[in-house]
Amino acid sequence: NGDEKPVVRVIDLPGASLSVAVGEGAVWVANFDDDTVLRVDPRSMKIVAEIPVGVDPFSVATGEGAVWVVDRHGTATRVDPRSNRPVEKTLVKGRLMAVAVGEGSVWAFETRVGQLLRIDPQTNTLLSTSNKILQRGPATSDYAGVAVGAGSVWVVSPGEGRVVRMDPRSNRPVASIRVGAGPAAVAVADNTVWVANFDDGTV
Fold it and tell me: Could you give the CA distance from residue 13 to residue 81 in angstroms, rounded to a whole number?
């Protein structure tokens, strides 16, 4: 019925919430201010756990039986959703600002150099690092987006105006597509890639 209004419920969260993911039986929120990931029960709408992760957590994703959080200091944290216990590993010297799961791996984008990291979801160890795929500059934003779908990994960052399509087997780029000013978020569904541009307010 087109006349029905959506039901909106609001949960008060501590700190600054920069990323949210749904999966593994909960809603997970990266809490930048408190260096935690919040576990929210979708039925009670209450925070049921505050799990310590790396400093300045920026992005969260779910998949491969775990919750994944990356931070601005090159650390990836794997959270076991059964115990809420984190396992943290420093992977690179740089800023990990986006994370996604798919094609049997965890993918994180390091914005200082512009590289895509492939992480083993079982051991939380670094499997490969791409060559520079997006040119970074001192004036560009740290925001970035990563998504997995249609047999590829897709990476965007502001400043370049492009989305890069990566081969998940080789972790090498196969296409670089101009998409407009300031692309900062990407999603894939039904073999279509959607990119949100914050500079010009388009998708």
Answer: 20
